[in-house]
Write a structure and sequence with these properties.
The chain is mainly beta and 136 residues long. Helix content is 10%, strand content 45%. A hairpin with a 2-residue loop joins strand 6 and strand 7. The longest helix has 13 residues.
Length: 136
Amino acid sequence: MRRAWVLFLLVLLAGCRYTFWPLIPPEAPFPERVSVTGRLEPAGGTARAVIVVRRWPEPNYLELRWYADEELVAERSLWVETVGELEVRFPAEAGRFHRLLVVVAGRPVLQLDLGEPTLPPPPAAPSPAPGEGSKN
């Protein structure tokens, strides 16, 4: 009977130990990531985009997509080899909503807006059912 208890305790205590070796896995380095910031300013009939590349692990293209409302107006690709500041100008019409989308390796990393987006009108208030007037 005593052997059964000892065997039971050994099995129970073995379940409380780590089951992988080594006990602490090795640390994996974080991957290098792209870090891009910027601002968009109106400049007469154009828009001036200042893009600051803060972290850039390897030379690659920086794709810029310029939208007026929902329409794609212009696309540009810039070859970037190191960190720095880039300035680009795009045509901009007053009174329209403009958006600059910055894409790296097929993934959007930054969106800059200029102007106010046009929103759909609010829904109309429901009309009262027939035969029911206002209850004042």
